[in-house]
Amino acid sequence: MAIIEVRSEITGKVWRLDASMGEMLGEEAPIMTLESMKMEIPVLAPVAGRLKELLVAEGEPVKEGQVVARLET
Amino acid sequence: MSFEDKIAEHARRTARAKAMGGPEKLARRAAEGLLNARERLAMLADPGSISEIGLFAVSARPEDRERSPADGVVTGYARIDGREVALAASDLTVLGASSARIASQKIAHLRNSAIRNGMPFLLLGECAGARMPDAQGAAGMGGVGLGYGFNRRRETPWITAILGPSFGLSTWFAVQSDFVVMRKGAALAVSSPKVTAVAISEEIDPEELAGWRLQSEVTGLVDQVTETDEEALAVIRRLLAYLPGHAGELPPEAPERAPARPAEEILALLPESRGKVYDARKVLECIFDAGSLFPFKERFGRSIFTGLARLAGRSIGVIACNPLFKGGALDADACDKAASFIVFCDSYNIPFVQFADTPGFLIGQAGERQRVGGKIMNYVQALELASVPKLAVIMRKSYGQAYLNLGGGLSDEIAAWFTSEIGFVDPAVGVSVVHNLRREQDPARYDELARAMARDNSPYDLAGIFAAQTVIDPRETRDWLQRMLEVHRRRPGGGIGSHRLSVWPTTL
Is there a single domain that holds both residue B320 and residue B417? Predict the structure, then answer.
């Protein structure tokens, strides 16, 4: 079992959360959608795993490279 | 028989050289599932086509002669799919394939011969670093500087496979190459973790210092990553089929294949909502020959895709915004990636096409710290200097300076899809800037102003001032590209460019 950090690839803000805590996600399943450059940019699970932590809330600004969630594989 | 003793001596020396680092080391490699240098070359080249040079070369140091067969690098000429290549494979079982005088002379000879005779140069690299004590001392270091040279002018394609630890000569070749494939578990760095720990007290895991994730995702020095040696060699064979043997000839052609996805599917892949993302690679599969997309640096600067493809059997370079990543916003890495790919296409007479779907260059502090402004200008300068046919297609969004970098005003022909929109900034940003109004202050007025701005972003207005040569249905793209290339390939010189980019920096 390993904890995988999920990072935002872009600076922007959290537009919508697409997955809930404890949910089992497949690889590339959307965890949340960010709004940046007027685009809806999905944050996808880098690997399959259980969503263990959501570290941001809707409307919150995020920085490029910021850890926004953790998955347990 | 005459010369009996000579025949026996020749056989003994030949067998000794081909025994490489000896049966124990070779058995250990085989047990790890790794091919040795000669097995790699045999797998890469057409059967029976290898003519080895330098089999009897050994270390320049008399005390090492008996333990340095081929001086740690197997070199020669061979054919791949019937075409001549020059190739070298490091032999890690011989003194760690360390960089030393005779080994370097062999590689320099091969490189110069490849350039003179118009052949690709291929290196299957592994290297423990500089050989010690050979390179130590003034005479050792001074000797390293005599006659090898680093003058990379892209006369012929160079391709490197990193198939093991690479900390010396093979690293310098890799970073000067046109394409690098790396096997997972191999390492690519200037210096090994051992030397790093001594010199700067940095204790670091080899994967973190030099592993495939770093080099393919963070630095972009590695173009493709494979699980095995065999896959890496297959990648090289596949790539060569797109490339000319040298900068003075055209790439070979292949039989035409219909696209893997029907053109109709483009309209299903493109979201109707302008803020939604999609994977542009799927759109490309509707346009180019089935199975022909060959990505460069796919894990790096992912908001832009770069790669080779075939259009009716002919090699073509593809640069395409990919909104799936960063919404298609182009960052510093994407600029480096696009510019280096233009340099590559221009050097080897490969026409290219840029596909735009970007909200613009990614602005903000992170980009400024990476000198994104300079990188944007490098990219557009490369586009200006490229002399191969260059086409542009505006798929959806094309905003600001990114419109110019993606070929606006700087291409031989531009087609805008009827789904495209062109302007300085996205209307939703533009209203705030021009009218000093945020949506929450007056939503109705804001929306009306944004709609008016969006109307002005029509592709027909772009074609109206002839900044685009045509507006097309996305489903017509393959036909349009084919037709435009038929025209633009006619330029005097028979498709051989002037190669103004061939001496650009080897790493952008």
Answer: yes
B240 interface with A at CB cutoff 8 Å: no
Establish if B453 belongs to a structural domain: no
Reported as a single tens digit per residue, the pLDDT across B27-53 is 999 999 899 999 999 999 999 999 999
Using an 8 Å Cβ cutoff, are B388 and B348 in contact? Answer: no
Beta strands in B167-246 (DSSP E): 179-183, 187-188, 224-226
Report the C-alpha gap between A33 and B292 in whole angstroms. Answer: 32
Whether residues A11 and B364 touch (CB distance < 8 A) is answered with yes
Whole-number Å distance between alpha carbons of B305 and B334: 8
Number of CB atoms found within 10 A of residue A43's CB: 23
ipTM (interface predicted TM) = 0.89
Mutate to test the interface with B, among A7, A39, A40 (most CBs of B within 10 A): A39
CATH architecture of the domain covering A3-72: Beta Barrel (2.40)
Cα-flanking dihedrals φ and ψ of residue B130, to 5°?
-65, 145
Question: How many alpha carbons lie under 13 Å from residue B427 in its C-beta half-sphere?
Answer: 18
Name the minimum distance, in Å, from the CA of A39 to any CA of chain B: 5
pLDDT digit string, tens, across residues B394-421: 999 999 999 999 999 999 999 999 999 9
Residue B209 inside a domain? The answer is yes
Question: Model confidence over B215-241: pLDDT tens digits?
Answer: 999 999 999 999 999 999 999 999 999
B142-163 pLDDT, tens digit each? 877 766 667 899 999 999 999 9
Residue B327 in contact with partner chain A when CB distance is under 8 A: yes
- Both tokens of B420, joined, read 């495209």
Q: State the best of A38, A44, A63 to mutate against chain B, taking most chain B CBs within 10 Å.
A: A38
Domain membership of residue B59 as a residue range? 4-240
